[in-house]
Design a protein that fits this description.
Shape: elongated
InterPro entries: HORMA_dom_sf
Mean pLDDT: 67
Structural class: alpha+beta
Order of helices and strands: EHHEEHEEEE
Strand content: 15-25%
Low-confidence stretches: 7-22, 138-151
């Protein structure tokens, strides 16, 4: 089980809220292009992380081969990630994302007596933070890693 915080799905095409924004001009157009690239980068990073850790053969996931090979990575796309990240992609790309990877608790405890009573049936295995901070006034850059910050309410990726 994985959870993505503060996100919605990364749409395959740019959202009108940031690709066709208000004032026009070269600066707005460049910002829209960089925002689109950030969204595509985060989508691909999440796909890579999840495909490496989650059983992708689960029938409910609905893996499909993408016709798009962004960043020269020909990977199946996880449809649920795209759906979950859509609201984030449209309005909140400067808000950090957190991806939590959980495993079943019984896999890590030899018997039920070892498991704490208040413990949920899942154990947090990994936590990834993805954030984007534009450099200067207009450029953009994507970065992953550290940073505490409020990542928002986790959303479950099934």
């Amino acid at each position: 089980m994985a959870q993505v915080s503060d996100g919605g799905s990364l749409a395959g095409t740019p959202s009108s809220s940031y690709m066709h924004g208000g004032g026009g001009g070269v600066a707005d157009e460049n910002r829209s292009k960089s925002d689109y690239l950030v969204v595509q980068t985060f989508q691909k990073v999440l796909d890579v992380i999840l495909l490496a850790r989650v059983d992708a053969r689960h029938p409910s996931e609905g893996l499909k081969r993408s016709g798009r090979t962004k960043f020269n990575l020909d990977l199946p796309e996880l449809g649920s990630v795209r759906e979950i990240l859509a609201p984030w992609a449209a309005t909140q790309i400067h808000t950090p994302l957190a991806l939590d990877i959980f495993g079943p608790a019984e896999s890590f405890c030899s018997n039920a007596a070892e498991r704490p009573k208040e413990h949920a049936p899942h154990v947090l295995l990994e936590r990834w933070y993805l954030s984007y901070r534009p450099q200067g006034g207009g450029g953009g850059g994507a970065g992953g890693g550290g940073g505490g910050g409020d990542a928002g309410k986790p959303l479950e990726v099934k």
